[in-house]
User: What shape does this take?
Amino acid sequence: KRRVFINSFEKVDKELRTIFNKLTGGSAWLEIEDPNDIFSSGIFLMTQFPDKAPRESTSTSGGEKTITALAFILSIQSVYPSPFYLFDEIDAHLDAVNLERLAELLKERSKRSQIILVTLRPPMIARASAIYGTYNEDSISKVVRYKPGVEIVVRSS
Amino acid sequence: KRRVFINSFEKVDKELRTIFNKLTGGSAWLEIEDPNDIFSSGIFLMTQFPDKAPRESTSTSGGEKTITALAFILSIQSVYPSPFYLFDEIDAHLDAVNLERLAELLKERSKRSQIILVTLRPPMIARASAIYGTYNEDSISKVVRYKPGVEIVVRSS
Amino acid sequence: TLIKRLEIHNFKSFESKRVSLQLDGGLNVITGPNGSGKSNIIDSIRFCLGENSPKALRVSRLSSLISDTGPKTDGRSAKVTMLFDNSRRAIPVDSDTVSISRELKENGESTYFLNGKRVQKGSLSEILDLALISSEGLNVIPQGMVTRISELLPDEKRRLIESII
Amino acid sequence: TLIKRLEIHNFKSFESKRVSLQLDGGLNVITGPNGSGKSNIIDSIRFCLGENSPKALRVSRLSSLISDTGPKTDGRSAKVTMLFDNSRRAIPVDSDTVSISRELKENGESTYFLNGKRVQKGSLSEILDLALISSEGLNVIPQGMVTRISELLPDEKRRLIESII
Ligand SMILES: Nc1ncnc2c1ncn2[C@@H]1O[C@H](COP(=O)(O)OP(=O)(O)OP(=O)(O)O)[C@@H](O)[C@H]1O
Ligand SMILES: Nc1ncnc2c1ncn2[C@@H]1O[C@H](COP(=O)(O)OP(=O)(O)OP(=O)(O)O)[C@@H](O)[C@H]1O
Ligand SMILES: [Mg+2]
Ligand SMILES: [Mg+2]
Assistant: This one.
């Protein structure tokens, strides 16, 4: 049991380091609280954003937590590869720079697994391989499919 | 006790109707679950967005809940006028149209009470009477004050 | 195993006339005004895959998933169908495409279909688990929940790693 | 009674050299990259007005509010000062401006000052209540919490109306 855990832990940790560095230029890693008693201690998700001190993910800012959470979720893929992702406005609290980097990463990842992503932010829409626009007509939702590259103007009445 | 409650309830309800209509063109209102037994029943926050059926606030969408919550909070002002507001990224899940309308409303409200608002969205920054830009230097936060109208580019390294 | 098509009938804000989305294998972006049905599309996928918690589907009880925009006739039901590309046989069923449907009646009862034939929820879940298809794994992030993972306590993070092994 | 100035010393990501913001009476917008100190400015105001819950200030214990970017000398402390315009005497103190400060030492102990004189937290809270100045009322919406009000249960909404009377 311990060996299986350590094996998966190391795979996730290795993938986390790669993804987080690609997203921020900083580093992130997993630490086991008590390696002698793994199953009754915890795991720390450590991050070090560029030019900052290392900090556990719980005491970073909202946008920093978003980036860390996504890097961690994508790193799990290395052990447990789900065939598709469903993301609903994961980019709401990201600044322009982090948004661009995340959008680029998801575009790349979408070559390996299907991603269905709800967003209101143009840089993310711009990287889609297929775009679905939802709108209301008499309190009923409708959906149209756009070709990427076609300018979408969010309709308002 | 009942009379005082009803009196405040009606003031908040009246103000809610005005603000919500200004924000969306639809209507919102408060309903007492059991008028004969106010203090052991609840209050419903009802909303009707344009061209849609009336719905209690809990079963609307994320962006609709944001608009309703802010209309309700601002309507409380009519009974309990706090001297300042502290809002941290309240506009994160709003689409472009709702964002413009909210920004316009807050600009107006800021003539009556001071508002300190954190945002990443340009239409909100554009309506500020004073802008503070935060940035990092060697993991220390710094702040500069901008004159409104001066173009701000969120610095990235 | 990617999702090729999603069909939504009479589910939440989608009316009884069938709404059908042809999905791409890459980055499918859904965008549009507030309240226009984006999150309801995500809910429809989770529903079809067996999600039974009203709270996870953002309703007070399951029967509220049936659209209330249509005529209030009797015998209303909501139905969602997903068509998967199974050319690599990740789903242990011998067909190039696999369709999964779920129909919910007003009394709250659900019926599941696999390639058009009725199937018990239990055996469908086993088949989906083998293909690593789940509606409540880390691969699903509902609106407003993205920072939660970073806010988990150390113990919760350990249990998370244990659960994926 | 609006806030004229905010001074932050050695609080969270703000270093020991004093950071001072002259605030406007209207719409003060704070913007900047992720992790640059925006929410820490909001926290500094709540801290100064007496907020004592570590969770509300997003730390595990109060002493973590003291900046850890400076030299790790002994006797470190965090201090926040707010200067209010009191020309209409909404704060029951006879001066045109009122300054409120809070200093936190490493042992977790706080000291409050009103116009430079030490004051007990209890009497400061009474004075602020009279001026309707509070750090935990509906006038404060922390990051990610804006939809909470719409999601309250009917009973909670009633209690909310009762609490403001
Ligand atoms: N005691 C402390 N000493 C030094 N830095 C700290 C301390 N506590 C928190 N920080 C750091 O302060 C930084 C800024 O946090 P803050 O939450 O204010 O960011 P923000 O500008 O609101 O970002 P976002 O846009 O992501 O919400 C974080 O990187 C965090 O790690
Ligand atoms: N059973 C139902 N019948 C009809 N409409 C419903 C039902 N349940 C919810 N709705 C409506 O569906 C609409 C769309 O909701 P949804 O959460 O999908 O919006 P959204 O596009 O994600 O918006 P946002 O950008 O604000 O998150 C809402 O206005 C809601 O009131
Ligand atoms: Mg949504
Ligand atoms: Mg913040």
